Amino acid sequence: MTTLSNLTHLDWLESEAIHILREVAGQCSNPVLLFSGGKDSLCLLRLAERAFRPGRFPFPLLHIDTGHNYDEVIQFRDLRAKELNERLIVRSVEDSMKRGTVVLKTPDEPRNKHQSVTLLEAIAEFEFDCCIGGARRDEEKARAKERIMSFRDEFGQWDPKNQRPELWNLYNAKVHKGENIRAFPISNWTEMDVWQYIEREKLGLPSIYFAHKRKIVRRGGAIVPITSLTPKKDNEMIEEIMVRYRTVGDITCTAPVESMADSVKKIIIETASTTITERGATRLDDQTSDASMEQRKKEGYF
Amino acid sequence: MSQANIQDSLLRFMTCGSVDDGKSTLIGRLLFDTKTILTDTLTQIEKTSKKRGMTAVDLSLITDGLQAEREQGITIDVAYRYFSTGTRKYIIADAPGHEQYTRNMVTAASTAHLAIILIDARKGVLTQTRRHSFLAKLVGIPHIVVAINKMDLIDYDESKYKAICESYKAFAKEIKLSENRTIEFVPMSALNGNMIVDRGESIDWYKGPTLLDVLEKITADYAGKDKNFRFPVQFVCRTHASDNHDLHDFRGFMGRVESGSISVGDEIKVLPSQYKSKVKSIQLGDIQLQKAISEQSITILLEDEIDISRGDMIIKSNDVIKPTKNINAMVCWLSETPMASSRTYLIRHTSRESKAKLDKIDFKVNIETLAHESIDNLSMNDIAQVTFKLAQPIMADSYENNRSTGAFIIIDESTYHTVGAGMIS
After folding, report:
1. Do A52 and B81 touch (CB under 8 A)?
2. Does the ipTM surpass 0.90?
3. Domain range holding B203?
4. What's the pTM value of the predicted model, to 2 decimals?
5. Any domain includes B171
6. Domain edge (last residue) among B288, B316, B344
7. Cβ–Cβ of A14/B289 closer than 8 Å?
């Protein structure tokens, strides 16, 4: 049993997130929770359990599938949805490509940014008025200025200059038909908070979050895993080293870091002494420009 | 068992000042000296510093904003930043300090336990210092740190520092800022890193705490010492025997304890219906609690089957709040579109919503002179005392007594934008 004398910052963050999830449930008529199988969205599921059990979640889960996945993550996604006995909807970027709404410049280009199109199509299909996501303000400077309940117009666009003021813990999730709210219950969490919560709650994670042997090449300072989607180039040397992922996403633009940390405890120690930010280390697509996240959010990215 | 505050391990503070006061450098310095800035971010700002022709790394670039802001050379909005020490986690609300952004300051202040008010040591107490202090008082921030920055530019002169402290104290007395509030003064140079996290060597005559020392020891509370139990119901969880036989007719009332505490066995009553019952159990997901305290999100189960829905408020049975349809409040208008006094607006108070119409505007506060002025209408950044008539009763306390049950936001009925914020008198 929790005693009151040992409440920590994790209890406060958890309580805030539960409050936000319940506001979504109380204010929105048709919300959905974006669930990728990644660590942040796995925290969201635990928070939703805390918020709504023994009842069912008042929303389904939705994964926007790029088709560029690690099998372990997809298996874990399906397992977790089944364990919780909650409805999982999957909509894929590849279906949008078939419909012609996503057009790739090159066949092997990263599909992270194309998720926006598929997400907007899913929002229209199911008439969702709110998407709950696991984004954090410490990830990136465009996120640092975003509201916990962030308004998007009918094109899914975020307008940083026209955000609704958000005061106290009074959230305004009102929208007209076609518009929508993106709700971020773990806005105030850092990467470290997420790992500490995973440890405290003993949350299971896809195996690629832990140190494992993987064939890689070193390309422009980054570690690139060798997969069928990311083959080695002619002049490159394949090495087999111990790595783990700090974040999971589209295979073609998510890089692992060298690590021997094979448990959550060891990952926390590594996170405390790391010298590179989560996105800096692992997201090959955010480095192209100083403002690439800001740009993507304006286009409807979550 | 000691009664700990859930928020003790976390402190939220805001910084008030303009870029010219060295606000960005101060925040950059706090993050840098607490080792929050990682190599790739530092490399990025080193590059930018060089590109802009600077010889040293400009720490203010850490808080450099969005592309949209750089293009226009302005700061648009409140940004939130994070750091941790061994003692607690910190959330900084970094609000742009210019005059036209009163609404951003009020937004940032609404969740802050503490405000750092920056003063440029060369300039002393300015109009903006007075404005920031007034707003901190209005929104009920219980702790103020007056950061007298740029001491390096006045040769770390102790007598000049003391003169600024005295003039601020005089002003604080004038606006009754010191009532129920701690005010501390710290001389510093954010540029050179003196008295922020490290003491440095240049201000050896100052024996008080550094800025971080102050942050580490302050109690993370809000103004309003109300210990009365307040539990606005956010969501009602009903499961039926068809879902799970063990949970036959489970009815859980979900919400956050906004103040006070509740224990299993306590007698409660529900507002506005006035139905009474007893707490059967308190749950947090699958965890059973004997007691829950302020700022904990919980589910309450009652002994009796009574009808409760979102927007109702649970309080202790011997406690009284009179539901009201008339509220008198200090309102800050946040929208570029002025208030239309004949229109109907929506008010969101706790988990409750009501239509509202303006009854009268008592006065507007001139935030430069703090004088009361008469006006017909509210425009953006105006702060005024007004009276609203509500369609539905709300269960309110005065903001001074209870930050959660004394605050509300005003929503435009047609655009659904948040257009105002109110604090009940």
Report:
1. no
2. yes
3. 6-217
4. 0.92
5. yes
6. B316
7. no
